[in-house]
Specification:
alpha/beta; five-stranded mixed β-sheet; 10 helices
C-alpha cells in the first residue's frame, strides 16, 4: 500500500534539506565574478599613461612657478618727497623691470602699518635721519627679504649710502624660514583629497546626511589637529590664535574634501587624476606658502585667489603675522567652495536619482 509523501519529500531536489527556508529565496553572490575595469593592452598602458601625464604636469607647473622666481609688481612703499619716490621707482624699474609697484607714503607710521598688515612687502625710508632704512617683514620668508633688500641696497649705494634694514614682522621662532604654513596646507589638501576619494570607495552606499556628517567630522578634527601641531603646544610655527587657525584649516579641509567628492561623482574614475591636478598640483603650487602670489607667472597668479589652498594659506598667514590680512576673503571663498560642492553632491546623489525614479 503506497504511503503518503512526507513534507521533506516534496522539496525541490536541488535544494539541500539542511538549508534554512528563508535562505532558499535569496540569490547567492558569485565571489568569483570578474571585476569591471580595463584589461589587456589597455589595462597595461592606461595606468602608466595617466600617472606619467600627472607627473609631467606636476614637474611642468612647479618648474614654471619656481625655476627662476621673480616678483611681478610686488607692492612696496617709499616714504619721502614725491619727487624722490618717482626717482626710486625709476631706479627699481631699471634694476628689475616690472618687478615692483611703488606706493608713496608721506609718513613712516603709515608705511610701517602697511608692512605690518601686508599691504606692502617693504617700506623704504628715504629721508631717515641716519641714512635710508628699509622696513620689511621677515615673516614673508627669506626669498622676499632677499628680493627687497638687494633691490633697495643697490639704490642706496647709488646715492652714496648704506641701507639699514629693519625686520618689523619677524618670523616665528619655530618657523625661521616661514615654510611651515606651506607644509601644513599641503598636508591638509592631501588629507582632503584622500577623504573625498575614500568616502565613496569605502562607503559607496552611505546616505548623503551621513556623508556630510563624515565630512564635517573630518574637517573639524583636521583643523584642531593641525592647529595643535603648528601652535605653541607643539612646534610653535604659526603663532595665530588657536580657534582662528583651527577654523580656517577646517574650512580648507572641507572645501578640498567636498571638491574631491564632486570630481568623483561627476567624472567617475577620471575624477581622481583631475582632482589631483587641480587641487594638489595647481592648488599647492599657487598657494603662496613658499613665495607670495606676486612671484607667480601671469597664467598661474589668478589661481591663488580662487583655489581653496591659496586663500586658506593667506588667511592663516594673516592670522599669525599680518593683522588678519586675507581672513575675510578666505572665509568667504572657502565657505562658497564647500556649499557649492555640497549642493552638487546633493544633486548628483539625491535629486537626480529621485527625478529618474519619478519618470
Amino acid at each position: 500500500m503506497p504511503t503518503s509523501p512526507t513534507p521533506a519529500s516534496t522539496e525541490p531536489a536541488t535544494v539541500p534539506p539542511e538549508v534554512p527556508r528563508q535562505a532558499r529565496h535569496h540569490p547567492t553572490v558569485d565571489a568569483a565574478a570578474p571585476q569591471r575595469g580595463a584589461a589587456g593592452p589597455k589595462g597595461v598602458l592606461l595606468p602608466a599613461a595617466i600617472v606619467l601625464i600627472i607627473g609631467s604636469i606636476f614637474v611642468s607647473v612647479y618648474l614654471a612657478a619656481f625655476h627662476a622666481p621673480r616678483p611681478h609688481r610686488l607692492p612696496v612703499a617709499v616714504v619721502g618727497t614725491a619727487q624722490h619716490s618717482r626717482q626710486i621707482a625709476a631706479g627699481l624699474e631699471h634694476g628689475l623691470p616690472g618687478g615692483f609697484a611703488v606706493r608713496h607714503y608721506g609718513q613712516e607710521t603709515a608705511a610701517r602699518a602697511a608692512v605690518e598688515d601686508r599691504t606692502v612687502y617693504a617700506a623704504y625710508l628715504a629721508d631717515a635721519e641716519d641714512g635710508p632704512e628699509l622696513l620689511y617683514a621677515g615673516a614673508n620668508g627669506p626669498s622676499v627679504t632677499s628680493t627687497v633688500t638687494e633691490a633697495f641696497s643697490s639704490l642706496a649705494r647709488a646715492e652714496g649710502h648704506t641701507l639699514a634694514p629693519k625686520d618689523v614682522v619677524p618670523a616665528a621662532a619655530g618657523d625661521t624660514r616661514s615654510m611651515s604654513v606651506f607644509y601644513a596646507a599641503f598636508g591638509v589638501v592631501l588629507a582632503g583629497y584622500l577623504f573625498g576619494m575614500m568616502t565613496y570607495q569605502m562607503a559607496p552606499r552611505l546616505h548623503l546626511r551621513a556623508r556630510m556628517l563624515s565630512l564635517a567630522l573630518f574637517s573639524v578634527l583636521g583643523g584642531v589637529i593641525v592647529a595643535l601641531l603648528t601652535g605653541s603646544l607643539a612646534f610653535g610655527a604659526l603663532p595665530g590664535p588657536f580657534l582662528g587657525t583651527a577654523g580656517v584649516i577646517a574650512l580648507m579641509a572641507a572645501a578640498v574634501g567636498s571638491a574631491t567628492m564632486v570630481f568623483m561623482r561627476l567624472f567617475g574614475p577620471v575624477g581622481m587624476p583631475l582632482a589631483s591636478v587641480v587641487l594638489l598640483i595647481l592648488g599647492n603650487s599657487t598657494s603662496g606658502g613658499t613665495l607670495p602670489a606676486a612671484y607667480l607667472p601671469d597664467w598661474l597668479h589668478p589661481l591663488s585667489h580662487i583655489l581653496p589652498v591659496g586663500v586658506g594659506v593667506r588667511a592663516v598667514q594673516g592670522l599669525s603675522h599680518f593683522h588678519n590680512d586675507g581672513l575675510t576673503q578666505g572665509i568667504v571663498v572657502l565657505t562658497a567652495w564647500t556649499v557649492l560642492c555640497a549642493a552638487v553632491v546633493y544633486w548628483r546623489d539625491v535629486h537626480a536619482p529621485r527625478r529618474r525614479a519619478a519618470v
